[in-house]
Each structure stands twice: as structure tokens, then as C-alpha cells.
């Protein structure tokens, strides 16, 4: 509800030493002197705040991590930073450890057993397989570090049961949905975001970080330089038309935070969540920004049949992941099945199937 949004935004503004004021449908952020530093709609104010404050999960602030765990989690953070893990990855993994630690405040990580972990995972039946897999990965890294550093003689997480992630089907956004959205949208930035996502397969966070200077090359050979998960870089070819639109932008980021003219920080990037929400709102039928990435992978694979090329374009570490993004058409599956059919002239329906003594089945021609 709108009241809850305003209450949340007031708290976020307070953390930045601002006061959020409302007049009818307009909102104002005031500094300590009462001067207006930013004004706009609630959506615009939220986008401005999101770009300047770290988001946290809804609900009450978690209790502090128990003292028995804090020094070992600090060691884990240092290890993760040394491995050049992203701040978001480190934050997520610390949250995994913190949740377990709060449930076992009197249990030192040096005393945790495999049985403790088994009961912990077994007691979270509402977790999805991907969550199980992610949390187990965190615990394996954490306890392996303690063992390697000589703080433990064993690794209780080393032989945890393997969690299989069910195979999921790709969900590419249909071209007619993309076309309809592009024809009906009046916001040029949202239209560009949809085109860029559909024609490059970029993730939400990659779209939000995109800059005009990322466009390289010349006419007929334009490409965009993308920095993806874990800082991995890739190059994606783009059309001259799309390149012209990107190069014509005069802000630092392709999708800056929506601010009023005159605000000196107008070049701050829009948050990935906000940009993704704008794309989702523009796509009819409940399609999302991520389904545009599926659309890119599917169309690219159908055009080339080269899974390795699509893997590189999407920035995946493994072609197995790429396969999730490439939907096989019904026609392709029918052609594959038809290719296995026996020739009726060689093996007619009434022909007998001879079973020799060695139990090898063969088709007996007339």
C-alpha cells in the first residue's frame, strides 16, 4: 500500500539525514537546513533513494551475529574479498551463516557437527532446491576455510547430501509481446531498455550499469562491452540503429536515476530493481525483463545452432546453464523425432521382429 511505501521511504531518507515531506501527490526531500534537495513523484523519490541506500530485506532488523561466530565470519569475509567475490555475493553468504548462528548462539563454529547441519537443512522444508544448494555452498566454503587454516581437524559440511536442482524450462518472451510493448510505450528510456535487453540478452544489473562509452566499433561492426557477474567481461555485437541510440545519450549512464533538472548527481545509475520493474510493467501478459534474456538465447541458438557462441554472448560459465535459456521449438523436436522413424519400405508394419539366440533384436526385411 502507498502508506507503507511512504513510511519505508521516510526511514530510508532519515538514514541519509533527509526528511521526506509530502504535498498532495508531490514528495520533497529536505536537508537539515530545510532546503529541498530533490522533489518528484513517489516513484521518482524511491528511485533516487534506491541509488543511494543499500536495500535490505523487509521486516525487522536481524539480531547481531553471536560473539562466538563473529571473528570466524570476519575471517570468511577476508577470504572472500581475497578471492575477489562481489560485495553482493559476500553479503548473501554472510546472511546464510548469520541465520544459522542466530539459531545456535551457544554453538561455536569450531564445534558444529555434520549432524547439526543435517538437522538444520532438514528443518527448512520450505526452502527451494536452489536455496538449499546456495546455502550448502556457503557452508562448504566456510568450514573448508576453517579446516585449511587449522582451526578444525574435520570439515562437517564436506559430505552433506547433494541437492539436485530440478530442470526448469526456458520462458522466452514472444516477439509479438516485445513488438506490442515497443509500439505502445511512450517513455523512450523504457523502450530502449526493452530493445537492449531483447537484442543483447543483458541482465537487469548489466542494463542498469550500461554506459554510452561501452559501445565500441564502427558502422557495420558495433558492439557493446558488458561487465557481468563476478566482473567477467564479454562483447555482444549490436545493430547500427541500436548503437546510434546509445551513442546519442549525453548522461554518464544509459539509464540514470530519474531526477529533476539541475540536480548535480543526475548521472547516478537507476537501480537494477527499478529498471527491471519498469520493463515488466511495459510488457503485457506478465512477462519480465529476464524473459527477454531467455528470448535472446532462444533466438540466437535457433539461428546458429551454436551453443558455445550463445554461451559467450550470455556470459555463462557453463553451456549447461545456457541450455536453460534456449527453448527448442516444437518443429525442431518433431524433425528430430521424425528422423528416427524406420523406413516402411525397409521394415514394414507386418514384418516380424526376429529375436536370435544372442537376444539382439533386428528388423527382418521381406
Account of the protein in words:
The protein is mainly alpha-helical. It has 3 domains: 2-50, no CATH class; 70-148, Orthogonal Bundle (DNA polymerase, domain 1), CATH 1.10.150; 175-324, Intergrase catalytic core (hpI Integrase, Chain A), CATH 1.10.443.10. The chain is 46% helix and 8% strand. The protein contains 15 helices and 8 strands. Strands 1-2-3 form a 3-stranded antiparallel beta sheet. A 3-stranded antiparallel beta sheet has the order 4-5-6. Strand 5 (223-227) and strand 6 form a beta hairpin. Helix 3 (70-82) runs antiparallel to helix 4 (87-103) and helix 4 (87-103) crosses helix 6 (129-148). The longest helix has 20 residues, at 129-148. Residues 259-265, 349-355 and 360-366 have low confidence and may be disordered.
Note the topology.
Layout: H1 2-15, E1 19-23, E2 26-30, E3 36-40, H2 42-50, H3 70-82, H4 87-103, H5 114-122, H6 129-148, H7 175-184, H8 188-200, H9 204-209, E4 215-216, E5 223-227, E6 233-237, H10 240-247, H11 272-282, H12 289-304, H13 307-314, H14 319-324, H15 330-338, E7 353-354, E8 362-363
Antiparallel strand pairs: 1-2, 2-3, 4-5, 5-6, 7-8
Helix pairs in contact: 1-2, 3-4, 3-6, 4-6, 8-11, 8-12, 12-13
In short, what is this structure?
GO terms for molecular function: DNA binding. Helix content is 46%, strand content 8%.
What is the 3D form?
A: globular
CATH topology of the largest domain: hpI Integrase, Chain A
Low-pLDDT sequence parts: 259-265, 349-355, 360-366
Give the termini separation: 76 Å
* Largest sheet properties: 3 strands, antiparallel
The succession of helices and strands, N to C, reads HEEEHHHHHHHHEEEHHHHHHEE
> Which strand order spans the largest sheet, edge to edge or round the barrel?
1-2-3
CA radius of gyration is 27 Å
- CATH homologous superfamily grouping of the largest domain: Intergrase catalytic core
Beta-strand segment tally = 8
How many domain modules?
Answer: 3
Instruction: State the helicity in percent bands.
Output: 40-55%
Strand content: 5-15%
Based on the structure given, which CATH architecture of the largest domain is correct?
Orthogonal Bundle
Amino acid at each position: 500500500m502507498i502508506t507503507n511505501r511512504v513510511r519505508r521511504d521516510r526511514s530510508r531518507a532519515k538514514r541519509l539525514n533527509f526528511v521526506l515531506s509530502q504535498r498532495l501527490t508531490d514528495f520533497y526531500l529536505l536537508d537539515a537546513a530545510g532546503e529541498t534537495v530533490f522533489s518528484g513523484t513517489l516513484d521518482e523519490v524511491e528511485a533516487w533513494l534506491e541509488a543511494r541506500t543499500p536495500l535490505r530485506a523487509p521486516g525487522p532488523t536481524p539480531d547481531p551475529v553471536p560473539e562466538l561466530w563473529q571473528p570466524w565470519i570476519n575471517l570468511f569475509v577476508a577470504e572472500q574479498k581475497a578471492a575477489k567475490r562481489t560485495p553482493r555475493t559476500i553479503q548473501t553468504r554472510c546472511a546464510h551463516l548469520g541465520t544459522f548462528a542466530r539459531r545456535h548462539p551457544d554453538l561455536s563454529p569450531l564445534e558444529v557437527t555434520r549432524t547439526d547441519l543435517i538437522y538444520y537443512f532438514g528443518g527448512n522444508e520450505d526452502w527451494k532446491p536452489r536455496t538449499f544448494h546456495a546455502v550448502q555452498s556457503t557452508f562448504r566454503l566456510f568450514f573448508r576455510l576453517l579446516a585449511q587454516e587449522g582451526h578444525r581437524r574435520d570439515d562437517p559440511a564436506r559430505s552433506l547430501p547433494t541437492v539436485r536442482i530440478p530442470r526448469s524450462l526456458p520462458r522466452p518472451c514472444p516477439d509479438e509481446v516485445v513488438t506490442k510493448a515497443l509500439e505502445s510505450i511512450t517513455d523512450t528510456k523504457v523502450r530502449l531498455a526493452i530493445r537492449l535487453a531483447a537484442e543483447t540478452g543483458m541482465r537487469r544489473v548489466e542494463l542498469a550499469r550500461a554506459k554510452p562509452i561501452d559501445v565500441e566499433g564502427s558502422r557495420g561492426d558495433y558492439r557493446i562491452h558488458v561487465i557481468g557477474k563476478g566482473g567477467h567481461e564479454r562483447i555482444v555485437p549490436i545493430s547500427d540503429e541500436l548503437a546510434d541510440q546509445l551513442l546519442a545519450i549525453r548522461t554518464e549512464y544509459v539509464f540514470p536515476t530519474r531526477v529533476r533538472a539541475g540536480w548535480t548527481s543526475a548521472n547516478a545509475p537507476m537501480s537494477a530493481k527499478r529498471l527491471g520493474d519498469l520493463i515488466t510493467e511495459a510488457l503485457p501478459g506478465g512477462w519480465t525483463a529476464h524473459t527477454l534474456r531467455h528470448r535472446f538465447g532462444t533466438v540466437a541458438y535457433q539461428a546458429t545452432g551454436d551453443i558455445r557462441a550463445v554461451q559467450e554472448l550470455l556470459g555463462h560459465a557453463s553451456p549447461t546453464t545456457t541450455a536453460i535459456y534456449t527453448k527448442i521449438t516444437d518443429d525442431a523436436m518433431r524433425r528430430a523425432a521424425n528422423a528416427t522413424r524406420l523406413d516402411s519400405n525397409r521394415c514394414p508394419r507386418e514384418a516380424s521382429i526376429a529375436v536370435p539366440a544372442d537376444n539382439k533384436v533386428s528388423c527382418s526385411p521381406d
